Amino acid sequence: MSTKNRIFAEVEAVDLQLxxxxxxxxxxxxxxxxxxxxxxxxxxxxxxxxxxxxxGCGPDFILCRKLPPLDQEITEDGWVFEDTSLTIPFMTxxxxxxxxxxxxxxxxxxxxxxxxxxxxxxxxxRQPDCAFxxxxxxxxxxxxxxxxxxxxxxxxxxxxxxxxxxxxxxxxGDAALCGMLLTTxxxxxxxxxxxxxxxxxxxxxxxxxxxxxxxxxxxxxxxxDGRMTETQQQFFNAMARDFEGAxxxxxKRIADDEMINGKAFLAGVNLSLDMIQAGVFNK
Length: 283
Hints:
This protein is of the alpha+beta class. It is built from ten helices and nine strands. The protein has helices at 16-20, 115-125, 137-148, 156-162, 172-190, 195-207, 214-224, 230-241, 244-255, 262-277, and strands at 11-15, 26-34, 37-42, 47-51, 61-64, 79-82, 85-88, 92-95, 101-102. Helix 3 packs parallel to helix 10 (262-277) and helix 5 packs parallel to helix 7 (214-224). The longest helix is centred in the middle third of the chain and has 19 residues, at 172-190.
């Protein structure tokens, strides 16, 4: 059943993790607003996204059928999340406990190399609108080489070169690292390579979160914890099945997702697939 309120149209879904973790409680302010998204940040930098179509649900997301139009003023400060509800000053209170739950903690296992999707990602990354990723190639190549040479214990310099690098609300380097983390995590659940490598990279990335912007930090934390948006879950489920038609649709949807800097995210996915295909994780 959808939750009704006076200003924001029905709450269609809420991230289960948002309701279960007490650390999300506190005061928030509006830091970004569009027709389909209101991004809130706390004083500690924690993010909550209130979204509507075309976005789906995701980590710490509240999905509404419709958000207030941009010409309707909303108070920027003093939003309070507490006890599974979000109080919007002078407007309304979103009671989220009865809303349908979405679990952003995804445990998707990919066992077989996704040849169809790999080809589709490569084709997408060769398109002109991905030209901005050219500057990211060298930092990613250095990081890849350190991993291939089994020098992950000394990977802090390559990680430094990627974290926070490049353009985007979520910097291109941060988005690529998210792609790497989630891809290797899915393959680790599928039993393709040693979990220790994924854990070590996650530790190194967490050490250098301070080099990333506020948005990038949040998305990297989500990726380290294995939390994904609805679209990312569909993408990795398509990778697990490797159906050509479904893969093509999902590669396009990821690339078009500006909230996660989807084109850079695909570059990170592609880098991990390169190493998996080369047998790096089977040695």
